[in-house]
Design brief:
single chain; about 220 residues; mainly beta; Immunoglobulin-like; 2 helices; globular
Length: about 220
């Protein structure tokens, strides 16, 4: 089994929970269009508030993603940005999650070997557990046999999976910045959301995370490869 540790996160993301609470009724299913609108707003604020050195980054490709877990109703929606700055490359993920009260897992971002995590943040908040502020957990392994290097959990699984303390569901934005450790023409992320319980032979319940997942690939343009 690969061993994992938690790296220190370096950059604080923008605080949008107050805005999202006003426009999202987290007691109901959230329409796809609302999720897309929230992501576009987050992207606009992100580019508008960074200092001048980021103005040299050029977006050469974008890929949208949308996942909805039928078991819990949780949603993970967002956009990947492939950017270049001369010979430098990076991938930005800007997303939004709506986690229902039925979901004890939340969202997952799986990052492969060969890429380095620069920053990852969320402003996700739970309706019931209002005293908890950090709902993100990052596990990292250097074991080459592992399919991913980083696992980023957002939501209940991002706070130790508090099964004994029922979650009330919640919403929040997600920001991830990645750079290749060597020249790379593309990146494939494993994205997931949702959870379920598997009953073992001895009667114990095993929590299964990211029950709805898919690989999402983004490529740099031909002239940048």
């Amino acid at each position: 089994m690969p061993s994992y540790s938690s790296p220190k996160r370096t950059v604080k993301f923008l605080n949008f929970e107050e805005y999202l609470c006003k426009v999202v009724n987290i007691q109901k299913a959230v329409p796809f269009a609302l999720g897309i609108s929230a992501v576009l707003i987050l992207a606009g604020f992100y580019y508008a508030t960074h200092d001048e050195r980021y103005l040299f980054w050029q977006t050469v490709e974008t890929v949208k993603f949308y996942l909805k877990d039928n078991n819990t109703g949780s949603i993970f929606v967002g956009t990947l940005f492939a950017q270049t700055n001369g010979e430098l490359k990076r991938i930005i993920l800007i997303g939004w999650v709506n986690i229902t009260e039925l979901d004890f897992g939340g969202a997952l971002v799986g990052i492969p070997h060969g890429w380095r995590l620069i920053s990852a943040e969320t402003n996700y908040r739970d309706r019931n557990l209002t005293n908890i502020s950090d709902w993100m957990d990052i596990l990292v392994t250097e074991d080459p046999t592992s399919s991913v290097r980083y696992r980023i959990f957002v939501g209940p699984a991002g706070h130790g999976i508090p099964i004994q303390h029922p979650c009330g569901g919640g919403t929040g934005s997600v920001f991830v910045e990645l750079v290749p450790e060597e020249d790379s023409s593309s990146l494939t992320l494993r994205l997931g959301v949702g959870s379920s319980f598997k009953v073992l032979e001895d009667g114990r319940k095993l929590l299964v995370l990211a029950t709805t997942s898919k690989n999402v690939t983004i490529e740099f343009s031909e002239q940048q490869k």
